[in-house]
Design brief:
The radius of gyration is 19 Å and the shape is globular. It has 7 helices and 9 strands; from the N terminus they run αβαβααβαββαβαβββ. By secondary structure, the protein is an alpha/beta fold. The longest helix is centred in the first third of the chain and has 11 residues.
Length: 264
Amino acid sequence: MVRLPAPQARADPAGDRPTRPVTGLPELPTGLDELAARYPRRDRPVLRVNFIASADGAVSVDGLSGGLQGPGDKEVFDTLRTVCDALIVAAGTIRAEGYDALRPTAPARAWRVAHGLPEFPLMVIVSGSLDLDPEQLVFADAPIRPIVLTHHGAPAGAPVRGVAEVVALGADRVDLAAGVRLLHRRGATQLLCEGGPGLLGAMIAADLVDELCLTVAPLLAGGTAGRIAHGPPAPPRRMSLRHALTREDMLFLRYARSGPADPA
């Protein structure tokens, strides 16, 4: 368990209220280059997952992750997309969160090109049922034809087959390990997963996760919201804390599989 320095209150110059406690943690940097150094591309294949949760562990507010967002979270979210080769998302998350096309901002695209990457990362959707709307912007406005990973029992006549490359891996459920190997063969070695919890749980069970980037929002959400991962039982996977950063009470954690420290 990480033990943080005890907060110390500071006097407000106006004398009418205390300022925020001092945590002792470094501030989340601003600027794409500085953020990319904190969330670096690696010289080996990596599957990184990015999630946000409340301080009491809720993965959503009113069914959506947007209710947890705060200062700095969008910057980390965009940076992780900028530095990846491919973004992997479950179909349920695509539908629930109303995903648009994967189009980084102009500065992010310029950063990618300057670092020898394609202008746009690849969009990869995991769906066993192929229950996806081909008119949703994630398909209709896609700068690169998305890939949908499914299994051999998926419906043959699903409309999404007309707007995406559908790849069947596995007899009656999606073989995620085979999907990762497929992406590696296509040159996408820096993979980012944004969920949902069922997909993360399946990836943990398949021992595919190399890094977890977790934003902790300063909220007590209560309710019935789930945790960031659920799925079949799996052995605990030991991780190492690579950084803990903060901005206005938001906490940004990055864990990686135990091993040599990285340059960041």
